[in-house]
Amino acid sequence: MKILLVEDDKTIASGLEYSLQQDHYSTVLCHDVASAKKVLEEDIDQFALCLFDLQLPDGSGYELCRMVKERRDIPVIFLTVIDDEVNVVMGLDMGADDYITKPFRVRELLSRIKTVLRRYQKSPHTRAIIDIDNVRIHTLEGKVYKNGVEVSLTALEYRLLLIFGNHLGQVLTRNQLLEQIWDMAGEFVNDNTLTVYIKRLREKLEDDPGNPALIRTVRGLGYKVGD
Fold first, then answer.
1. If you ran DSSP here, which 8-state letter would residue 186 be given?
2. Which 8-state DSSP code applies to residue 26?
């Protein structure tokens, strides 16, 4: 598992990085908001958890937490010398999963990391935003946009698109799609209905529905969205 560590105190950062690696985590270390944002923009999907110092030379861990939670629902733990209640509550309200005050024992931090990761692994989290080419799904709002313009989808169309969005790059058989739609909708959906809804999604989201590039048919297997 890879952890993004953002800490401006280079002595603390070096000690933390060593301890995390000794505990079999791989790490990416940044010392300021700007470099951390660059890493997150380029490859946020590589991280299982983020450790953010709250006070950084060019901003705060709050900015980074907000950026992470807008893109993916992965755990964030704040590291800080500030222990007043207002900052604790503000961090947690923003979506942070834990908050540990300096000075802290490394063993305590490692224990909290394991606890948070276990909690996430037990209950699957859906990303707040899923991008598929020029289509963006805002899962918390249940809205879909194409080239920045909202697209109106029925409940079943949205559920079907969300299944594809949560399995990017995977080939899904018709049976897998039927089972998942049925589970989500709580009602029976037959094979003909699935064909109709895939056709409708293509008409609403594809640039050329006759030659779909978004929801691609994999002959003899099923459908695939994303690479």
1. T
2. E
